[in-house]
């Protein structure tokens, strides 16, 4: 467990207060971080705090300003901001309980682990955790952290609980403005059945270990190749076969059938032979095409 909690306070349910600590449940260590470098000298780029018409300034002279009118600011220092009294700075009061399905996925922002602050808090913590499990509810409240007050949800997670910050309603764009041009029509039933069969064939339990960041892996490989090369030439990876032209017209039925065949299934119970026949002929065509391609280069050399 990290040495320092992200937030310390109490969860309050009616007259019951439970001292807790909150720790970040995620990390971004997998990302590749770059620094800006001045190419002629190879030196890192640094940034200076400057005042317009004055030049570089002392960090101790910097305050936070809110623009009330054009070029007119109300200045506040950090102590004044920290002194704002807000009960949710130290207390998360659970004011409502809802079904988890009632919260749209768009509202979830960032998860945190919640643990009891000490041995005395454990009993009440466990009671609340088990009550949420039995009722299959999610607790809602508001919590102030690092200069902002959040709407948060609280739900059981193993022996502990997970708190998730939620976006406010005005922070979420209305989906209708993006989806309104999509036709409201029923799909072809045969296509739908094929798609459902393909989904069923590829269904399984989620295991996050099955996925890794391929972009980060590719960047690491590029960095290693660049480090080993003696010159400072550019290394540009081009993928001639990747991607599909926007003008390509895909036969959806054929594509779904082919996908089913590749995944080891059959497209439809009524037409197993028709679905398998193209799969047997395809390798023969490919094999015939390869020797022809191999003979072309020698022909050019003789010429």
UniProtKB/TrEMBL annotation:
Region ranges (Disordered): 259-303
The Ku domain, residue ranges: 54-182
Known partners and oligomeric status: Homodimer. Interacts with LigD.
Stated name of the protein: Non-homologous end joining protein Ku
Name of the encoding gene: ku
Pfam families named among the record's database cross-references: Ku
Composition bias type Low complexity, residue spans: 268-277, 284-296
Superkingdom, taxonomy of origin: Bacteria
């Amino acid at each position: 467990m990290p040495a320092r909690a992200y937030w310390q306070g109490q969860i309050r349910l009616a007259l019951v207060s439970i001292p807790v600590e909150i720790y970040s449940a995620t990390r971004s260590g997998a990302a590749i971080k770059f620094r800006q470098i001045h190419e002629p000298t190879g030196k890192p780029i640094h940034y200076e705090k400057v005042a317009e018409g004055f030049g570089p300034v002392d960090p101790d002279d910097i305050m936070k300003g809110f623009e009330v009118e054009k070029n007119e600011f109300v200045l506040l220092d950090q102590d004044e901001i920290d002194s704002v009294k807000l009960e949710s700075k130290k207390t998360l009061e659970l004011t409502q309980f809802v079904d988890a399905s009632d919260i749209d996925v768009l509202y979830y922002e960032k998860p945190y682990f919640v643990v009891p602050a000490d041995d005395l808090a454990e009993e009440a913590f466990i009671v609340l955790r088990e009550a949420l499990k039995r009722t299959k509810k999610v607790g809602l409240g508001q919590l102030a952290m690092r200069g902002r007050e959040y709407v948060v949800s609280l739900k059981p997670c193993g022996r502990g609980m997970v708190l998730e910050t939620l976006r406010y309603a005005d922070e979420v764009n209305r989906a209708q403005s993006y989806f309104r041009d999509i036709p409201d029509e029923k799909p072809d039933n045969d296509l739908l059945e094929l798609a459902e069969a393909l989904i069923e064939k590829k269904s399984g339990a989620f295991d996050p270990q099955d996925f890794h960041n391929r972009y980060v892996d590719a960047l690491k490989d590029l960095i290693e190749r660049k480090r080993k090369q003696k010159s400072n030439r550019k290394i540009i990876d081009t993928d001639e076969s990747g991607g599909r032209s926007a003008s390509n017209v895909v036969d959806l039925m054929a594509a779904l059938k082919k996908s089913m065949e590749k995944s080891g299934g059959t497209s439809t119970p009524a037409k197993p032979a028709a679905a398998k026949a193209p799969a047997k002929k395809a390798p023969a065509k490919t094999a015939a095409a390869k020797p022809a391609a191999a003979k072309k280069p020698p022909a050019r050399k003789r010429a």
